[in-house]
TrEMBL record:
MF terms (GO), sorted A to Z: ATP binding; GMP synthase activity; transferase activity
Protein name, as recorded: GMP synthase [glutamine-hydrolyzing], amidotransferase subunit / GMP synthase [glutamine-hydrolyzing], ATP pyrophosphatase subunit
NCBIfam families referenced in this protein's UniProt entry, alphabetically: guaA_Nterm
Native species: hydrothermal vent metagenome
InterPro entries per UniProt: Class_I_gatase-like, GATASE, GMP_synth_GATase, GMPS_ATP_PPase_dom, NAD/GMP_synthase, Rossmann-like_a/b/a_fold
Length: 288
């Protein structure tokens, strides 16, 4: 099978609770992306060949000893970079700026005011306006790296957005990925499509077909056993496997007696009758 190569964005995860929301926003824009931990993100550059990099937020402080840092290879890749919250602070430190601990943590809605034009919010926000965003931070940048400028500020974050247009690096103190930043999806669209040049060539239907082809190639003529719990993950895996290899699949559903009322019967009916999947219903309530 020849794997179709999609335009990709690399999301570097610094441990944020909402990193998955970044990926969701990009997929809503039909842009393929992969999340990799900060400690190994540089290792995927050659294979992924990302058109841009997004640095997530995170719970740590860049002021901590052994704080998570940006791999130099990411900065040397030469592609556009967008840092978010901790990602902004990590960028600031890596590029020669300074970060200081805030006297009070800022958490909640805030109004950002653009001060200069910027490609990140071009066509979305106007200079001098006020726009709602979501803040969640303790530390803040106190000295800009060389070549950067402040393009938007808020009362609690004087460097709400910083930019180096020449190097194509932008960073926000707020979280554009969350619901409470209403224009966040538009900011991502500007970054991944206008700046990174992604055309939006990825869809879930495409992913599904590629997954089916990959399963067929890997399984060949062999048989597969799938442990089925009835939950979302194993159910999706079972249906996808069945579409790929049909009768070569046997699902095993272990009834441990701790399910909701009638749930076991619903699982058996759904998969053996509705999907016509070979299913072994192992009843072991007494053992559990």
């Amino acid at each position: 099978m020849s794997k179709q190569k999609h335009q990709a964005i690399l999301i570097v995860d610094f441990g944020s609770q909402v990193t998955q929301l970044i990926a969701r926003r990009l997929r809503e824009l039909n842009v393929y992306c992969e999340i990799h931990p900060y400690s190994s993100a540089a290792d995927v550059l050659k294979n992924l060949q990302p058109k841009g990099i997004i640095l997530s937020g995170g719970p740590a402080s860049v002021l901590d000893k052994d704080a998570p840092a940006i791999a130099p290879e990411l900065l040397d890749e030469g592609v556009p970079i967008l840092g978010i919250c901790y990602g902004q602070q990590a960028l600031c430190v890596a590029l020669g700026g300074k970060v200081e601990a805030g006297h009070v943590r800022e958490f909640g809605r805030a109004d950002v005011s653009p001060q200069k034009s910027c490609s990140l919010f071009d066509g979305v926000w106007e200079t001098g306006g006020k726009y709602q965003v979501w803040m969640s931070h303790g530390d803040k940048c106190s000295k800009l790296p060389e070549g950067f400028e402040i393009v938007a500020a808020s009362p609690g974050a004087p460097m709400a957005i910083i930019a180096n247009e020449e190097r194509r690096i932008w960073a926000t103190q707020f979280h554009p990925e969350v619901y409470h930043t209403p224009d966040g999806i538009k900011l991502f669209e500007n970054f991944v499509k206008k700046t990174c040049g992604c055309t939006g060539d990825w869809t879930m239907a495409t992913y599904r077909q590629q997954a089916i082809e990959k399963i067929r190639e890997q399984v060949g003529s062999n048989r597969v056993i799938c442990g089925l719990s009835g939950g979302v993950d194993s159910s999706v895996a079972a249906v996808l496997l069945h579409e790929a290899i049909g009768d070569q699949l046997t699902c095993v559903f272990v009834d441990h007696g701790l399910l909701r009322k009638d749930e076991a019967e619903q699982v058996v009916e759904m998969f053996s009758q509705n999907y016509n999947i070979s299913l072994i219903h192992a009843q072991h309530q007494d053992q559990f």
